[in-house]
Amino acid sequence: MAQLEHIEAIEKRLWNAADTLRANSNYASNEYFMPVMGLIFLRHAYSRFLSVKDPIVANLPQRGGKTRSLTKEDFSQKSAIFLRPQAQFDYLVSLTDSDDRATAIIEAMEAIESDYDSLRGGVLPKSEYQELDNSVLGQLLRSLNPDELKRVSGDVFGRIYEYFLTQFADQKAHDGGEFFTPVSLVSLIANVLGPEGGTVLDPACGSGGMFVQSARFVEHQHENPIDKLTFYGLEKNATTIRLAKMNLAVHGLEGDIQKAITYYEDPHELVGKADFVMANPPFNVDEIDADKVKKDPPRLPFGLPGTNKKGKVSNGNYVWISYFYSYLNENGRAGFVMSSQASSAGRDEAKVRQKLVETGDVDLMVAIRSNFFYTGVCRVSSGSSTGTSLKSTGTRC
Predict the structure, then answer these.
(1) Does domain 7-173 fall into CATH 2.60.120.260?
(2) How far apart, in whole angstroms, are the C-alpha atoms of residue 302 and residue 355?
(3) 0.85 exceeded by the pTM?
(4) Per-residue pLDDT reduced to its tens digit, 290-343
(5) SS3 letters across 49-98
(6) Where along the chain do its domains lie?
(7) Quick check: do 7-173 and 176-382 share a fold?
(8) Which of 99, 147, 233, 291 is placed for a possible disulfide with 205 were both Cys, Cβ 3.0 to 4.6 Å?
């Protein structure tokens, strides 16, 4: 069976099974979010592991009649994650009710941590599983491992991983659903920009979708994204950073993702250095401290948007747009999602917009219909065309 038929039905069945089991746990929906995503992470990682294992084994070098052992590097070259036996999903599914499944899952996560420094320090869920009943964990593991999914090729579990993210976003299970941008929208931005190689920055990186889609673009060029791209991200929410690092790792990728409030902090110091900037920032944010923001003039090449009587930036849209522009090097390109209000805002925002347009660097605006986002918020996508020295783009509904 080359590809799974009726994938939508399978996704819904898996989601319903996982969501139903929450009733048998001590977790609220927002607390259930991370342990479920941890198991989806393990199953997705195992799917990618199996998809590349046989060709890797077939090409392992031999010395003195002995074949070299598998390593993390073998799988990184194939955009997959290396899994020790105790971290492989089939092993976890095979456990019986007499086994301590929570401990086994924790040991699986620790085995992965031992090979991936970027996943240490509390990125992967572990202690959360001790709050789930042993039999419930068994049901959840089995529900995420149906027979039909064992016979498919392609990145089917990548799609399921993304589907679960959208479902949790729809429930606003974490951070109001702001951590996830629809894959089709991210793919549009990546394919318009064409990040064939260089530094990719997402100053509001959420769960890391911009990085994953950039890597996929490189893979479609028959190149290894690890060799071609370097990822930098900023994100204010610690749980979302965990999601982003898991999302990168399961695709065999790594990135430097820092916890920061981008309005006031710039830990990567990439002004004028990024080849690509991709982002879906929060829209129409008010009450940004103008005194703090204006202390960083390199990131505000067109000046500060209007402030109110309290000394706050009335709307942060053009703060974000200015930042995106400032991060790009001479030949850099940016694509981002932005509120429709940005294309028609008046007063000081209009002045910033005029200066931006006068640079000649705005190349393309793409209008997206309302209610495009899974959370029902009307948002829009903007991207740049390839082959230009694009500094930023805007968009409207």
Answers:
(1) no
(2) 6
(3) no
(4) 999 988 889 999 998 888 878 889 888 999 999 999 999 999 999 998 887 887
(5) HHHHHHHHHHCCCEECCEECCCCHHHHHCCCCCCCCHHHCHHHHHHCCCC
(6) 7-173, 176-382
(7) no
(8) 233
Query: Per residue in 39-64, pLDDT tens?
Result: 988 988 998 899 899 999 999 888 88
Contact 304, 235 (CB under 8 A): no
Kindly report, residue by residue over 20-32, the tens digit of the pLDDT: 767 777 777 667 7
Contact status, residue 322 vs residue 300, Cβ threshold 8 Å? yes
Q: Using one digit for the tens of pLDDT, what is the confidence trace for 284-295?
A: 888 899 999 988
Six-digit token string for 30: 């927002």
Residue 141, classified by CB atoms within 10 Å of its CB into exposed (0-12), middle (13-18) or buried (19+), is: buried
Average pLDDT, the chain: 83
The burial of 111, by beta-carbon neighbours within 10 Å (0-12 exposed, 13-18 middle, 19 or more buried), is given as middle
CATH class of 176-382: alpha beta
Task: Tell me how far apart the alpha carbons of residues 119 and 127 are, in angstroms, rounded to a whole number.
Answer: 15
